[in-house]
Amino acid sequence: NDFFFGSRQSGSEGSGIIIDAENGYVVTNNHVIEKSLSTRSNQLLPGAQIEVILPREPDKRYPATVVGRDSETDIALLKIEAKNLVAAELGDSDDLKVGELAVAIGNPGGSKFLSSVTAGIISGLDRDIGWTSEEGNVYTLIQTDAAINPGNSGGALVNSKGQVIGVNTVKITASGYEGLGFAIPINRVKEITDSLIKDGYVSRNRPWLGVSISSQYTEAAAKQFKLPIGAYIVEIVADSPAARAGLKVNDIITKADGKEIKSGDDLIEIINQKSPGDTMKLEVYRTETKETLNIDVIIGDERT
Q: CA–CA separation, 138 vs 124, rounded Å?
């Protein structure tokens, strides 16, 4: 839904890999599905849906739920309810050598070219192409000259044994060059999916509240609307510490641990002094009822 233009429909298509037949787990790229989800959560936006098409049943669509996702490594894990699934065999990306056969499997251009295959070689390993996390961790990728096009994202890069050695991604591209495709090493993918299955997210060990603060709510705006100065909440992530504590959209955080809050930056400064599991005491003005509340929030571990 768009405030100015009303309801609009859009969609995107990508590829995926069945990694667990019994539980119906399908791995893909986060950027393939993220537009259907609310910010930093696994909750579908109103009217949005994620569906999986199996090559053996091209006319059937399986509704998918999001087990978890990680924007920093561009990995997402879905779950479908389907019988007689066949899981891909996962290889060992640490054993790869430059010059080995590499085969990319996916849906370039979407379902129109379902299960297309392109072949090439491993052109490079541990490629640093500037993909760095907020903590400064550098993520390196497999380079291949097998054609990887839009729609291939989330699909398999396999070796000569048919084992999956990487997850293709076109989120990272090398503009101005041809024959440069990249895949996330499968050993890294295993680490991420194991964490998503266990916790639903990848732990960053960073303090997290789970709110978005308006940058337009200034002291002048507060004076204009005759509201208290503070951090004005415009979005709350589902199942976040803020949501569990009872904070609401349009609440104004005026104090945190007894310190006055005049902007989102003030709030972030205090949050960053915390550790996951710490309690933060908030004074909140609820615009809906025009009352001031005292709310304790248990700081969470940031999800990306």
A: 16
